[in-house]
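Here is a tokenized protein:
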Amino acid sequence: MSLKYSILDLATIVKGDNITTTFQKSVKSAQHAEKLGYTRYWFSEHHNFPNVASAATSILIGHIASQTNTLRIGSGGIMLPNHTTLSVAEQFGTLEGLFPGRIDLGLGRAPGTDSLTATVLRRGDANPHYDFEAHIKELMKYMSEENASSNVRAIPGEDAEVPIYILGSSTDSAYLAAKLGLPYAFAAHFAPTHLEVALEIYRSNFQPSEFLAEPYVMVCVNIIAADSIDEAHYIATSHFQAFVNILTDRRQPLLPPEDTRLDILPDEVLQHLNRMSSKTFVGDKASLTENLNDFVKYYRPDEIIIAGNVYDFDSKMKSYEIIADIMKEL
């Protein structure tokens, strides 16, 4: 089976844009991705970030699905601790009813925000011992045909054929995805440290289920492409500045390359940046083809999910074009 390739979009707000413009760009981006043969287009739930507009994830998924035809649209992911399982079942059951066979439900256990905002989202519940597995099973129950005899039913949602994916950036999520026999998506685009060991755990512990007969590995990495290596590195400065802003808690929209200040980073910040970006690929078609071919041979993913912040919209669309050409050859 050929390698699948997909996109993770945070509905990134760039300097000078408002929310409406940001969503309009996500629509155009998804339509472009559909023409280029991408498999799915996911949004990730984040809160209280001035450069991320994907907080109301299920609403955004519905809007993008309504503006595309064949592309799978979904969450990468919904942060389950922030919601009741019933509400998630109802929302994604509704989406599946509107766009049959095109909706994905990726689930994460992280808050997708800072601790104070997470506490507000959870109505004051700051329990650090969240039972992710129990709530996934509860969600599955609501979305099953068997739940029709229950006193509490998800309508829409009951018997909805929405595939579930486990997202993670640690070994805990790898064990859980293997135990439940679900596809596993690893967030190497911002937390690459445990990628190798997590995939080994998932594959070696995988238990076949009604959903999957064998492991299905998805790896999210940052890829930024351009016609030349110099141009790629130039437009990628916005991406690296966004990482620095996370590390230094400087919250602001995505900056254009000319406003970035990567040349004056303290050594400690630079070390953290290098660690965060170890699975970030920047270059032209030839250099990326070589590097990504090595990556695919070593980690053996079934699917690569592409992330990466580019300030200029046309440059971002060009990057997606180059990446699609590369993926078709891997």
Observations:
- DSSP finds eleven helices and nine strands in the chain.
- Residues 237 and 257 are 6 Å apart (CA to CA).
